[in-house]
Amino acid sequence: MITLQNLTVKDAFQSVDEDPILVRMTDEFSLVIKNFAHHAELRGVFVVDEASRFLGVITRTDLLDWTRVKLGAIFLKPLTNTDKTIRLANLSNAATAGDVLRPDTKKAVLIPDDTLAKALQTMIEADLILLPIIDESRKIIGSLSLSELLNLALAKNVCV
User: Coil, helix or strand for 12?
Assistant: First the structure.
């Protein structure tokens, strides 16, 4: 019986011709917006330091939050979550990728030998559907999406 514990990240992630989209902390946020605008299928942009080491992810939800603040729609829907309210307030002055990056995404990484069970748990805990796959120096060598994980699970008739 095959389970997510028996399959690894390297079994699931696709080696693609295109490298993941990377931005630096100091890049203008307009660059992130352009990446999302030009790549409709894009789930996230990876933020890296000067040595190309992974620092976090900016997602479409982050982009929506930033847009909500910038277009003055912050109060159209009552905010009941204190953390979300603080995040939205902080986004009002965001100008760089680092200003929009959620710091909690820095821990949301995978290595090729991680199990798919760990990958799914990490996605759920970080509320991300796209995770970077990193090497020993935290450089991104690929990515794994929820759809890639589910496709492999379906193809292998994984028991959950």
Answer: helix
Would you say residue 40 lies in a domain? Answer: yes
* pTM given for the model: 0.84
**C-beta neighbour count of 3 within 10 angstroms:** 14
Pair of tokens at residue 51: 């040595």
Please tell me the total count of domains within the chain. Answer: 1
Q: How many residues does the chain have?
A: 160
Q: Which residues pair with 54 in a beta bridge?
A: 48
We report the CATH number of the domain holding residue 50 as: 3.10.580.10
What is the block-wise mean pLDDT of the chain (160 residues), using blocks of 10 residues? Answer: 83 66 94 91 92 94 83 62 71 88 92 94 94 94 90 79
